């Protein structure tokens, strides 16, 4: 989402075309900003982000197929490419009104740069000494700039640093300086309040808002909100915004409490803070423009919404979305649960349980599907998920689990997965299952586990540890980390070594936590879904896992979608996935009820 003189703009995913389409509000009602043939998406770092920014009379956006920046006229929608760098991808776009240019991160030939783009292929490098760059931020005068960098082998949420520079009259950067955090930590989302710089830093355990100044050439870090809570999630994408200044000491920010997002607003220095937009559980892309706060908001019972909050009254109004997903069917709301520490594990497990709509009772607990979220340094949000609703309407309970290593629970929880992937996450999935069985919310004989991508790895590892789960599902999941390590993209090239330790140092650990090497331990049925164009989990990896299981005499189904990549985008394939997975779970639920 972005806002400027040209209006308020955001992206909406169109399931029919599989494209991200531009929408805008310049009056009261949303309009399409581009035809459905234009797909807007950045691929920098593989996950993109910051694919658009609003200029004076146009929007600048990254077109998906060529990864070039296009100028889209705000009035007419006329589109033209302003970069023609065939080997590059762009992301993290920010409009610089002082030099009439777009600032961006350019990625090509295994390197990244902070660049400035003027109309029609004038691309000027600004900074290029570091491995990775975040979207930059400009001060109110345009004379100062800040950005975040990190270096291999780190991920940005493990260790990253703040950079600043002055901007010369010609737009070049002057006196670039690096400002490490006072303690070990990571920083993200730099933003200026006038000329004063703020960032989110977790060097004291949580991603909190810090003011950073350097009056005597020594950085001073001052915390604005010391609440023991994360104020952002993991920065997988460029250009995320979870907080924003309002001027006169006022702020708006997101705070995560037990995995639930809250939106808080403080109008000025000395005023009290207030929680706004109740009923929504996650907020992203916070933007303030012309006395209004804009954001993408998500709730447990509605589709994603675009909110506008009047900063004078705190009243929120809908610009788009918030439509009822079903016209004649109930929506199942999540019920938070916590699993207390036990058996030497000192951390709680948090998650969200969704009951089936068929009214199962204590004497007849429902079958349960446990979902391991992807990432793995991501989190489960209590927001509307049509696939979760699908399971609940077909008689299953669902548990979406935030295992150790999840974001949103502080640095200690997030870092707990270092060297422990395939162990701590699996233990926590088992703890969640046992807790829900013990509290009468799941049938112990009908427990299923599934996950996408890295969540598929967690599900596979859980299936190697015995027969607690009746069956498991891997949706384009990792079954051979060593193979993934050989082909993974640059952004995550050091991630697996952080998750498991370097293979040269821990060869036994890698063997023990590689599902394809432990396939002989799987004693229950598995089902796999794989895209033939997947560039993250190489398709052959899934074929090999299925072959090994079949050679061992185990039941393994494989559903192949040749036209899909990593994550299914086409509606027909999403429907086919759910239908086949439902048949699989129903089959093994019936076998259990029949004594099989």
Summarize it.
This protein has nine helices and 37 strands. The protein is of the alpha+beta class and 596 residues long.
Describe this protein's structure.
The protein is an alpha+beta fold and 596 residues long. The protein folds into three domains: 1-127, Neuraminidase; 129-240, no CATH class; 335-593, Alpha/Beta hydrolase fold, catalytic domain (Rossmann fold). 15% of the residues lie in helices and 36% in strands. It has nine helices and 37 strands. An eight-stranded mixed sheet has the order 30-31-33-32-34-35-36-37, sandwiched between helices. Strands 13, 14, 15, 16 and 17 form a five-stranded antiparallel sheet that branches. Strands 1-2-3-4 form a four-stranded antiparallel sheet, with no helix packed on it. Strand 5 (52-54) and strand 6 (58-63) form a beta hairpin. Helix 3 packs across helix 4. The longest helix has 23 residues, at 571-593. The radius of gyration is 24 Å and the shape is globular. The N and C termini lie far apart (52 Å). InterPro entries: AB_hydrolase_fold, Peptidase_S9_cat, Xaa-Pro_dipeptidyl-ppase/CocE.
């Amino acid at each position: 989402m972005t806002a400027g003189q040209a209006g308020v703009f955001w992206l909406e995913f169109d399931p029919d075309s599989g494209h991200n389409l531009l929408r805008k509000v310049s009056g009261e009602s949303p309009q399409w900003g581009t035809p459905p043939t234009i797909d807007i998406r950045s691929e920098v770092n593989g996950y993109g982000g910051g694919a658009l920014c609003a200029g004076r009379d146009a929007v600048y956006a990254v077109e998906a197929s060529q990864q070039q920046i296009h100028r889209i006229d705000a009035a007419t929608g006329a589109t033209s490419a302003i970069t023609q760098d065939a080997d590059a991808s762009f992301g993290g776009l920010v409009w610089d009104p002082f030099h009439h240019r777009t600032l961006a991160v350019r990625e090509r030939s295994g390197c990244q740069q902070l660049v400035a783009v003027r109309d029609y292929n004038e691309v000027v490098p600004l900074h290029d000494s570091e491995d990775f760059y975040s979207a930059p931020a400009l001060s109110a005068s345009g004379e100062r700039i800040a950005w975040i960098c990190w270096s291999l082998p780190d991920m940005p949420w493990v260790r990253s640093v703040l950079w600043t520079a002055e901007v010369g009259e010609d737009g070049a950067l002057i006196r670039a300086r690096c400002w490490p955090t006072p303690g070990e930590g990571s920083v993200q989302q730099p933003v200026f309040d006038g000329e004063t710089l703020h960032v989110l830093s977790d060097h004291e355990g949580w991603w909190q808002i810090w003011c950073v100044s350097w009056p005597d050439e020594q950085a001073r870090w001052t915390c604005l909100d010391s609440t023991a809570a994360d104020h952002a999630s993991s920065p997988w994408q460029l250009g995320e915004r979870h907080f924003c200044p309002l001027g006169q000491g006022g702020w708006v920010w997101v705070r995560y409490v037990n995995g639930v997002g809250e939106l808080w607003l403080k109008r000025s220095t000395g005023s009290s803070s207030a929680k706004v937009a109740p009923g929504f559980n996650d907020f992203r892309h916070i933007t303030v423009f012309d006395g209004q706060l804009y954001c993408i908001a998500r709730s447990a019972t509605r589709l994603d919404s675009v909110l506008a909050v009047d900063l004078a009254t705190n009243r929120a109004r809908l610009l788009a979305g918030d439509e009822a997903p079903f016209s004649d069917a109930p929506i199942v709301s999540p019920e938070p649960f916590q699993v207390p520490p036990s058996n030497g594990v000192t951390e709680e497990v948090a998650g969200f349980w969704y009951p089936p709509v068929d009214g199962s009772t204590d004497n007849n607990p429902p079958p349960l599907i446990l979902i391991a979220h992807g990432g793995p340094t991501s989190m489960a949000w209590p927001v509307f998920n049509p696939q979760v609703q699908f399971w609940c309407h077909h008689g299953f309970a669902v548990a979406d689990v935030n295992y150790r290593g999840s974001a949103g629970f502080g640095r200690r929880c997030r870092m707990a997965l270092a060297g422990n992937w395939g162990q701590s996450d699996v233990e926590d999935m088992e703890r969640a299952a046992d807790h829900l069985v013990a509290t009468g919310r799941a049938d112990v004989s009908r427990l299923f586990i599934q996950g996408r991508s890295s969540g598929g790895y967690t599900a596979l590892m859980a299936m190697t540890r015995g027969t607690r789960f009746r069956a498991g599902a891997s949706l384009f999941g990792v079954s051979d980390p060593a193979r993934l390590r050989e082909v993974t993209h640059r952004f995550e090239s050091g991630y697996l070594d952080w998750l498991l330790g370097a293979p040269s140092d821990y060869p036994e650990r890698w063997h023990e936590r590689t599902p394809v090497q432990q396939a002989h331990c799987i004693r229950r049925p598995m089902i796999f879904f794989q895209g033939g164009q997947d560039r993250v989990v190489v398709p052959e990896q899934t074929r090999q896992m299925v072959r090994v299981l079949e050679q061992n005499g185990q039941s393994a189904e494989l559903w192949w979608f040749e036209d899909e990549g990593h994550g299914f985008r086409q509606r027909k394939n999403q429907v086919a996935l759910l239908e086949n997975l439902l048949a699989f779970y129903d089959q093994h639920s019936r076998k259990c009820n029949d004594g099989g």
